[in-house]
Specification:
The chain is of the alpha/beta class. The chain has helices spanning 54-61, 89-95, 110-120, 127-137, 141-144, 157-169, 187-200, 213-219, 246-251, 256-265; strands at 14-25, 28-39, 43-47, 71-79, 82-83, 96-99, 175-179, 205-209, 222-230, 236-245. The chain has ten helices and ten strands. Strands 6-7-8-3-9-10 form a six-stranded mixed beta sheet, sandwiched between helices. Strands 2-1-4-5 form a four-stranded antiparallel beta sheet, covered by helices on one side.
């Protein structure tokens, strides 16, 4: 099956294609009928009010939602031409890495935070070289090269988050998912992450969930605005309201709800 891009990037194929996706936990519906394409080597920002299902959506991409009891999804998620449910979840999560909201370094040395994952995944190359390269990719090498065997927990919050990104990059994923990666960081650390993401998009496809409208407008190529609708029974369900290039979403959105959300927070 070969999915091609729509009018946003007519000459590109999508790396992830989401078709008619609905998500349920127990008897509650979280997302309804999501259709979305994620383009290679672009940064896609996912924005919208709390509770609209942004985090649930990106956790579907690498099947982390399946770790929760009573999860059920309807519809399809294709990575290239393969439905993700047909892929080995361990291998899928190597290809689709995840950086979480709060930095979560292992309680080990800076070096071992990266080397451990390489060893577990049977890396056959020079681990020292890969550790250095990964740290250089996130502009952390010069800050830690003389203290590689110091506990990662001694790093600042911003350094810890960059280390977690380096840990993800070491496994050479195709896609990096980021769930509010700067929400716990100060403005200076956030600016460093923004600069890093801009550099990384030349080699990786990045999807960022964020409540920070300034960040979304600065770093992303495309923005998907999710909203919430309330059913007659009072159930709140997330849906994709609008998806377009970022400059359109922030300056010329087609939906009034998008305009209202962005203008209140931008």
């Amino acid at each position: 099956m070969n999915f091609t891009s729509d009018y946003l990037y007519p000459n590109l194929s999508s790396i992830l294609t989401i078709q008619n996706l609905s998500v349920f936990f127990d008897k509650s519906q979280i997302l309804e009928n999501i259709n979305l394409q994620i383009y290679a080597y672009k940064i896609t920002a996912i924005i919208g009010p709390s509770g609209c299902g942004k985090t649930t959506l990106i956790r579907c991409f690498n099947r982390l939602t399946e770790l929760s009891p009573n999860f059920r999804r309807v519809g399809n998620i294709y990575m290239g031409d393969r439905e993700v449910s047909k892929l080995n979840p361990v291998e899928l999560r190597r290809q689709v890495g995840m950086v979480f909201q709060k930095p979560n370094p292992f309680p080990k040395s800076i070096y071992d935070n990266i080397a451990l994952g390489l060893r577990i995944n049977g890396y056959q190359g020079d681990i020292d070289e890969c550790v250095e390269y990964s740290l250089r990719q996130v502009f952390l090498w010069d800050e830690v090269k003389n203290n590689l065997y110091r506990s990662a927990l001694t790093l600042s919050g911003g350094q810890q988050q960059r280390l977690c990104i380096a840990r993800t990059l070491a496994l050479k994923p195709d896609i990096i998912l980021m769930d509010e990666p700067c929400s716990a960081l100060d403005p200076i650390s956030t600016a460093r992450i923004d600069e890093l993401l801009y550099e990384l998009k030349h080699s990786y496809t990045i999807v960022v969930v964020t409540h920070n409208m300034q960040q979304a407008s600065r770093i992303s190529d495309l923005t998907a605005f999710f909203n919430i609708k309330t059913t007659e029974t009072g159930e709140k369900i997330g849906y994709l309201s609008e998806y377009d290039k970022t400059e359109v979403i922030f300056h010329h959105p087609k939906q009034q709800a998008t305009q209202e959300y962005v203008s209140r927070r931008f």
